[in-house]
Amino acid sequence: MTPDDAAAVAAKIDVNDLAERIGLRAVEVIADLHNAQDKDLEQLTVEAALSNVHAVLRGFAGAEDPAFVQPPELTLSWVATMAQRGISVAAIPRCYVIGMGLCDAALRKAVHGLAASEDVKWNLTNAALNYLYEYCEKITGDLVDHYQRERELWVRGADSVRAELVLAILAGRPVDLHATSAALGYNLDRPHMGLMVWADPRNPDKPPLQALKRTAAQLAHQLKGMELLVVPAGSAMVWAWTSGPALADELAGELTIDGPLLASIGGPSPGVDGFARSHRHAKEARRMAGVFAHAAGTVTHHRQVALAALLTHDLSASREFVEDELGELSSDTERNRRLRATLVVYFHENMSWSRTAERLGVHQNTVMYRVQQAKELLSCSLSERRLELEAALRLAEVSANLSPGGLAGSGQPERDVCQDDWK
């Protein structure tokens, strides 16, 4: 067995797919993580799994000593989030048991597929599994310690009481309106707009909590909010609400913030139910900021991405929808991207050759030729399933992110999809 053999094994594994299977399985079987309405926690779990899969494969391929590995930053953030939400520390080792089983199977399959002697395969299998088990033993111990520290800090902190009350409201538990408002220092009997501010995961420099809170306050001021409630929601994110009779929802599409932060906003909604509803919308907008890979400094308003959020509630099903509707046109080639972009404008201009050509800056004959090429790749006429085709065309530009594993592993795309297409 040589270092090249280990690297060949690691290269055979689809890390995004493996991480997705680990994360989704953990969310499915561990009661503390299972919340069908909390896509945020599900995605954080997949991202943590991805960071560990990368670390295991890198360490195995590089013949590192697992006794000296450190928990990945994304995993520490996941643990801090669990500590702040009161999720049991027992969820950590249970996740790693699931991860070990699925990683074990993936490593064995990768070794089996190598063109090598049986002795080499035997040695590789043993080396890979020994590394995996020793890695998990070391990391779970570190993470349990990290959880305990984070939980102790959280319980002693001033934000913890407010956060517990907020979680109770969001979970739909009955609360005394006036007593809870007094405890939060925030009037629940008003129209609210939910906000979220978080650090750009692509930036290695994480801003302090105060920077996140300060940005939430700036957004609330621009939206003409009278009151502000902010609670931490992990090591690099805050949830916030602003309220008042004159909330300026129409300004939301014009807001920007300083990098390396991003933000999302839900629409205004009244009372305790509105408090939870606007937060759900802000969470959906935050999810879509990830799907569309919005740049740092972007504020995503739910109203601008509401249709896309509905269509991508199940990311994997959305990807299948794109493939089923577009067929060969869904494949990610330069030619197909050009044809899809032409069709998007063609539909937007109500199938006008001349207006499409003018908007694209090409000759009308070029538009006609591209549309004809697209028709030949589709299994139906453009008018037969126009609504489905338009939705699939817009989702196709972010198809790499249409799965929890793909979204976890996504970086900045070559180009962004315009939010205005979803208004």
Automatic annotation (TrEMBL):
Top-level division of the source organism's lineage: Bacteria
Coiled-coil annotation reads none
Q: Which InterPro entries match?
A: CdaR-like_regulators (IPR051448), CdaR_GGDEF (IPR041522), PucR_C-HTH_dom (IPR025736), PucR_C-HTH_sf (IPR042070), RNA_pol_sigma_r3/r4-like (IPR013324), RsbRD_N_dom (IPR025751)
Which regions are flagged for Basic and acidic residues bias? Answer: 413-423
**Domain named RsbT co-antagonist protein RsbRD N-terminal: residues:** 17-162
Chain ranges of the PucR C-terminal helix-turn-helix domain: 339-395
Which parts of this chain are annotated as the region Disordered?
A: 404-423
Which ranges carry the CdaR GGDEF-like domain?
175-288
The record's annotation in PANTHER family points to:
CARBOHYDRATE DIACID REGULATOR (PTHR33744), DNA-BINDING TRANSCRIPTIONAL ACTIVATOR ADER (PTHR33744:SF1)
Q: Which family does it belong to?
A: Belongs to the CdaR family.
The protein depicted here goes by the name PucR family transcriptional regulator
Q: Which organism is it from?
A: Mycolicibacterium neoaurum VKM Ac-1815D
